[in-house]
Amino acid sequence: MSLLRSARFPAIILLVAAGLGLFVANSALWPAVDAAMHAELGIPGVFELTLSHWIKDGLLALFFFVVAVELQYELTSGQLNSARKALQPAIAAAGGVIVPIAIYAAMAGGSDATAGWPIPTATDIAFALGVLAVFGKGLPPALRVFLLALAILDDIVGIIFIAVLFTDGVNIAALAGAAVAVVAFGILSRQLDTRGRVPIAVLLVLLAVTTWVLVYLSGVHATIAGVVLGLAMAQQPALRVRHALEPWVNVVVLPVFAFSAALVVIPAVPLSQLSPAFWGVLVALPVGKIVGIAAFGWLSLRVAHRGSAPPLAFADLVAAGALGGIGFTVSLLLSELAFTDAAALRDQATLGVLAGSVISLLLAAGLVSWRAWHYRQRAATASTTT
To answer: Are 247 and 4 in contact (CB under 8 A)?
Structure first.
């Protein structure tokens, strides 16, 4: 079970699942898989969704619940529990959002691909921490803390984009009902350690399912239900639930989503005819993240540590920027949402996410290895001179 919770293993599974999805979509298996993804599942005449929607609206809500619990912990007890701690990674994260958006918008140039500007803003925590675990032996704790805070803040931005940009025709009654269910969920979760756990746990599951259904019916993207439930739950029970869910999210939820999101038929057109939806994401993820995070991060550290050496060198920030360019999970979801009614653009944006994330991954592996080697050498030199 410890393997399933490790930082390395989930990243490998995600990469394999995405590669398998791309392979299946461009093989003889595609018609059967496509039909399966569009099959209606649920209670006939009451509540039915296609398999594709169950994956990206249902399964992925569990991932966002786990992310939200981590956000809650970091904002109250962890690395972001004060404005001083959060300021520097927040400024770097802002650069990692603003610069990719600017690059994408410039490349889209007012075309029909412009709607995809949020896609290259996300960072995949699982992948980033996986690369750090594999190649980052010897890195200073300050860099790990900085990267974790950066990835968490990027997730907050992605969640805000999903909630604000991709909500149409809100059903106020359903949304109000969801809010009541969330409040009840939060209050009840605080009774878990003082009263009978099993009955309360059953009620919490029922309230969570009710919240998800009502959020879906309200017109707000259903994954937001996972976010608000994770933030509303009492911290200690939430951390226990997160611990229980983490292996399933790592080996089932995220790989299944990566597989389904990567079911993209590669266009049989020359590179020159690919849409800005592809090129914008392809460039904005690796280049925009490195430039934005490194530049804004350098400025934030210089201002905060004026007159003394900052804890991170500029090269460390470049490595962090490369890690930030691994968009993957949330970027794939954003490409689905941005081009819901434009299948060709959605497929090209998805290819851009996959290619841009792989480029960022390779760059990050090299840069993190170099910085880790640098710090190991420095530690070895210091030990021989003392």
So the answer is: yes
Residue 26 DSSP one-character state: T
Asked if 273 and 32 touch (Cβ cutoff 8 Å), the reply is no
- Digit-coded pLDDT (tens) for 289-339: 999 999 998 888 777 666 545 677 889 999 999 999 988 878 888 888 889
Contact predicate 364/322, CB 8 Å: yes
Q: Are 181 and 228 in contact (CB under 8 A)?
A: no
Residues 265 and 26: beta-carbon distance below 8 Å: yes
E strand segments, the chain? 40-43, 47-50
Check if the beta carbon of residue 271 is closer than 8 Å to that of residue 279.
no
What are the two backbone dihedrals, phi and then psi, of residue 41, each rounded to the nearest 5 degrees? -130, 145
Helix axes 125-135, 141-165, angle to 10 degrees: 160
The structural domains of the chain, ordered by start, are: 2-166+221-381 (1.20.1530.10)
Which amino acid makes up residue 116?
A: G
